[in-house]
Amino acid sequence: MRLLLIDTCGDVGGVAVSEGETIAASETLPERGSSSALLPAVSRLLKEKGWTLAGLDGIGVVAGPGSFTGVRVGLAAAKGLCEAANLPLAAVSRLAVLVEATALEEGCVVLDAGRGEYYVRFVRQSEKAQDALCRREDLLARAEGNRVVIAEPKLVEVLASLSPELHLLSVGQALPVMLRVLQEGGSDVATTDANYVRGELDIYAKVPGALAKAGPV
Question: Is residue 216 part of a domain?
Answer without folding.
Answer: no
